[in-house]
Design brief:
eight-stranded mixed beta sheet, 10 strands, 2 domains, Rossmann fold, alpha/beta, single chain, two-stranded antiparallel sheet
Length: 334
């Protein structure tokens, strides 16, 4: 089973019906009130050309939001409900196609599309946008969902001077501790290991994530993990130590959250089975950073949608009205 099903619960029904858009995505309908500009930028990581779209009000606007979706295959047409509502409120939006998806270059690889790599692409996108004449004197913020939230907070600590940041259902716990919560909920069966109990799987995850070092390469981390597998007789657990998972075990952004000096909205649903609402909120409250506003959406899932809503079966991007209003109102006011 591939890691994209666990990393942060991406819908498994992303089937293509057009070259540059997936079934659960939707294009923004342009009108006389909206303009669109194709953006192509180069990743500073490896020179890959990435492509996206900047959509902005034809009249005056003062803010733009970079929307970064979670794991799995995504195009510039993701989170279309949020994008539409931002535009309705005179806030521009920028989204880009993942590597090897849509018009972006490179090759998509489930096992190596890490938070760290996405973070570097976000940094490259931001640095390019800052140079655009049309965005001169505009506030540039970022909204990151799930894995995109990890990439966003990482970009903040690596040279991106965002004016504001929205963290949507983003793991805050250090060193992949949230993976033990995922192993407990195990909503898609990713953490099932033949012959092992849930408790044994969690023990294995904790031993691996406590053994890896942030500055070592993947092969070194993998060797440590394989030694633990052998010691615990985990012959069927190789899918848990792929690069994309090990990278999550190296993420530690608590200092950035604690020292963040720009407005931040952290929003999460009580029915999130991928990221623990209680754990993440408790950590953030403990930091006592006055710049962080926390919003908990009752009965909302990992995508901040209500699964009883028929529209959620069409696309997870149909977030609840409460979540939508919270995000938009906060962004308008800052």
């Amino acid at each position: 089973m591939k890691p994209l099903f666990v990393i942060l619960f991406i819908c498994s029904a992303k089937l293509t019906y057009a070259q540059n858009i997936f079934r659960n995505e939707q294009k923004i309908e342009l009108s006389e009130q909206l303009k669109s500009q194709e953006i192509e930028f180069t990743s500073r990581e490896d020179g890959i050309k990435l492509s996206g779209s900047l959509i902005y009000p034809a009249n005056e606007f003062s803010k733009v939001v970079i929307i970064v979706p979670g794991s799995g295959k995504n195009t510039r047409h993701s989170h279309f409900v949020l994008a539409n509502e931002f535009l309705t409120n005179q806030i521009a939006v920028f989204r880009f196609d993942d590597r090897g998806i849509g018009k972006s270059g490179g090759k998509y690889n489930t096992d190596t599309e890490t938070a760290t790599l996405l973070q570097k692409d976000v940094v490259s996108a931001f640095m390019y946008l800052k140079k655009l004449e049309i965005l001169y004197d505009k506030k540039i913020g970022i909204l990151g969902h799930s894995l995109g939230g990890i990439a966003s907070i990482g970009a903040l600590e690596n040279g991106c001077d965002f004016d504001f940041i929205i963290q949507m259902a983003t793991p805050v716990e250090n060193n992949g501790a949230f993976l033990t919560y995922q192993a407990t909920t195990n909503i898609v069966g990713f953490f099932t290991v033949k012959g092992k109990t849930t408790e044994e799987v969690i023990q294995f995850i904790d031993l691996v994530r406590n053994s890896v070092c942030p500055d070592e390469d993947y092969q070194a981390s993998k060797n440590k993990a394989k030694a633990i597998m052998k010691e615990l007789n985990f012959g069927k657990g190789k899918h848990i130590i792929k690069e994309v998972i090990i990278d999550l075990m190296k993420q530690n952004h608590e200092v950035t959250y604690q020292s963040c000096e720009i407005p931040m909205l952290y929003i999460i649903g009580t029915e999130d089975k991928t990221v623990s609402c209680n754990n993440e909120v408790e950590i953030l409250k403990g930091l006592k950073n006055p710049n962080i506003s926390i919003s908990i959406i009752d009965k909302a899932s990992h995508y901040l949608n209500d699964k009883s809503n028929p529209k959620s079966k069409i696309s997870p991007y149909y977030i609840t009205e409460n979540a939508l209003n919270t995000i938009i109102d906060w962004t308008v006011k800052i």
